[in-house]
């Protein structure tokens, strides 16, 4: 009797192990799994390989979910594969889209503007359009004017006009018009993206988590500081330039009231965490630098003569200036 009981226990244990193994195999990979891998420091290549080797995925690629992924610092190349597991990050040829694991809702003009304002590359926006279950784009002349004002790249607008067009003729590089020879000649180096750059277009600040930025004036303040730092580094701020820059503001804690900060003598312990993002003229991200400053922040106008032009008035502005100078020479 004891022997029979022991055999039955072993048999039950084997069945349980097989059942648990089946549960592990059939578990679908989710957005949170990707965020966890990024947080653990895994490279984009490893995460992409994991996605493609997973038998089943259940990724949410809605616009709101993409915002959350961007805030978690998930690289564009990984997001592209989450939208379309067959996509090849950086490829210039079209890859047949795989059926999405969680069909996203239809897209609108505002969705496209939101993705562009968050700093997503043209490839990501176009892939998201192709993956949408439906689209409701307004491509009237007035709507196109609004898209242009929101810095939506022409390659994206082309796909909005004809979402079912193949990606190759739309995304493929086009010859630059003769009227803009200077922009065509600019070479952007990954190690020194601001080398030989004379002017930068500064876009509006993006707030990744409004709950961590309580000060209403913070987005404008950090944008102004970016402009000041660029000018201090002998780089002009222009309405149109080969390089676009903006701040992604992750956290802002003021040590004083908004009124005191605005008039120029704010004081107290403050904390500011953000990313300085550089993009090319087509909206593709070329650099993202984390900046964290804690201490006394006092936003005010520059003081002093030309010999003091590189003396930033805040520790945050000084940090921006240091990063900009680094990106001019590399390293």
Write the layout of secondary structure elements.
Layout: H1 2-26, H2 31-39, H3 44-53, H4 63-71, H5 76-83, E1 107-108, H6 109-117, H7 122-131, E2 135-136, H8 141-149, H9 154-161, H10 167-171, H11 181-185, E3 199-202, E4 206-207, H12 218-232, E5 236-237, E6 243-253, H13 258-262, E7 269-280, E8 285-296, H14 315-329
Parallel strand pairs: 1-2, 3-5, 3-6, 4-6
Antiparallel strand pairs: 6-7, 7-8
Descriptive report:
This protein has 331 residues and is an alpha/beta fold. The protein has two domains: 28-171, no CATH class; 191-329, Rossmann fold, CATH 3.40.50. The protein has 14 helices and eight strands. Strands 3, 4, 5, 6, 7 and 8 form a six-stranded mixed sheet that branches. A two-stranded parallel ribbon has the order 1-2. Helix 3 packs parallel to helix 5, helix 5 (76-83) runs parallel beside helix 7 and helix 7 (122-131) runs parallel beside helix 9. The longest helix has 25 residues, at 2-26. The radius of gyration is 24 Å and the shape is globular. Residues 21-25, 91-102, 166-185, 257-267 and 298-313 have low confidence and may be disordered.
Distance between the termini: 75 Å
Mean pLDDT score: 74
Strand content: 5-15%
- The secondary-structure class comes to alpha/beta
Structure annotation, total helices: 14
Shape summary: globular
How large is the radius of gyration?
24 Å
Please provide the ordered H/E string of secondary-structure elements: HHHHHEHHEHHHHEEHEEHEEH
Number of strands: 8
How would you characterize the largest beta sheet?
Answer: 6 strands, mixed
The figure for the number of domains is 2
Uncertain ranges: 21-25, 91-102, 166-185, 257-267, 298-313
Helix amount, in percent?
40-55%
